[in-house]
């Protein structure tokens, strides 16, 4: 089978398309999946760029979507022909978080989904949302589920809430769509007026160019009246102070990304006075993903995919991600 591998120590020029042995038939409790798509995430970029070292010859990519070709003994949840999508934490089935590293995350600690076939435990996949193509389904594993968990599972999002979404990348646009799907109002920040216009076309009620308005946190707070109920915080230390300004008393900030760095000052007195909850999170469990899929099955919501690349062009897909020009998700189909 064709597979993209990463030669140590990493770097976009260290990606190679190779032939790997076919994984064969599934054993007990396993399924064989013919993969058709993956999508790019910041975590995948960290691995491929060599910032998060992995073993030599690793198959990258945490997201994988395709069709079940065969099931092993004892598997009743899936049948041949079912469209499925992978789980970011294949060992976290349900319950509270118990995993704090990436040692068992596909594309990092174990081989991922930049390949044609995989044999894996049935519990490493869920059904794909109805009507989604494979590229659309692949976007839910990491970005979609992260946004869902922050807003719905951790945040208890409800109709009428007000949400602040930072930027227009994969998690942020998914968060905008989920919030609108649930009847919430959304403010979006970006340095690009063009991207802000696109966010408005997706239902954003308030848009702010953070370069034009460096004190955007106060502007968002004023727009929401008493501040927003939820913040999708993907920036980290460089944006957290503004997010705390934007949130209402008793609100919720989902700390999802570290695009501005891994450490920095936190205005603890302001956070304390807001009595806001700052919740760090990494994606979610299989149970959360199943609930997310059920919600998508009932909602007219489709992910935004900016561009689709071929597997051979995976390095070019990451270069496009590196440019920051994308809006929503970048997919690879094969």
UniProtKB/TrEMBL annotation:
InterPro entries the UniProt entry points to: ADH-like_C, ADH-like_N, ER, GroES-like_sf, NAD(P)-bd_dom_sf, Zinc_ADH-like
Pfam families assigned: ADH_N, ADH_zinc_N
Domain Enoyl reductase (ER): 10-332
Protein name: Putative zinc-containing alcohol dehydrogenase
GO molecular-function term, one example from the UniProt record: oxidoreductase activity
Residues making up the signal peptide according to the UniProt record: none
Gene3D superfamilies with a match to the protein in the record: Medium-chain alcohol dehydrogenases, catalytic domain, NAD(P)-binding Rossmann-like Domain
């Amino acid at each position: 089978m064709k597979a993209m591998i990463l030669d140590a120590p990493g770097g976009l020029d260290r990606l190679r398309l190779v032939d790997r042995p076919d994984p064969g038939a599934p054993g007990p409790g396993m399924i064989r999946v013919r993969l058709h798509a993956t999508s790019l995430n910041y975590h995948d970029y960290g691995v491929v760029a060599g910032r998060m070292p992995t073993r030599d010859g690793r198959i990258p990519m945490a997201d994988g979507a395709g069709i079940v070709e065969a099931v092993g003994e004892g598997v009743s949840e899936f049948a041949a022909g079912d469209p499925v999508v992978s789980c970011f934490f294949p060992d976290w089935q349900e319950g509270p978080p118990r995993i704090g590293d990436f040692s068992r995350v596909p594309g990092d600690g174990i081989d991922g989904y930049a390949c044609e076939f995989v044999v894996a435990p049935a519990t490493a996949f869920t059904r794909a949302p109805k009507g989604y193509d494979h590229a659309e389904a692949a976007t839910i594993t990491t970005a979609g589920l992260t946004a869902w968990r922050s807003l719905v599972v951790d945040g208890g999002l409800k109709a009428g809430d007000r949400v602040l979404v930072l930027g227009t990348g994969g998690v942020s646009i998914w968060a905008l769509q989920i919030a609108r799907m649930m009847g919430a109002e959304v403010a979006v920040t970006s340095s690009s007026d063009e991207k802000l216009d696109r966010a408005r076309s997706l239902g954003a009620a308030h848009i702010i160019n953070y370069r034009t308005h460096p004190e955007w946190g106060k502007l968002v707070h004023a727009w929401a009246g008493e501040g927003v109920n939820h913040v999708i915080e993907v920036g980290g230390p460089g944006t957290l102070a503004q997010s705390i300004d934007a949130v209402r008393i008793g609100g919720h900030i989902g700390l999802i990304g570290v695009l501005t760095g891994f450490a920095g000052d936190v205005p603890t007195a302001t956070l304390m006075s807001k009595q806001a909850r700052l919740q760090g999170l990494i994606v979610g469990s299989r149970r959360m993903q199943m609930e997310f899929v059920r919600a998508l099955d009932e909602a007219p919501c489709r992910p935004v995919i900016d561009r689709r690349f071929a597997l051979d062009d995976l390095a070019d897909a990451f270069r496009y991600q590196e440019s920051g020009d994308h809006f929503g998700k970048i997919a690879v189909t094969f």
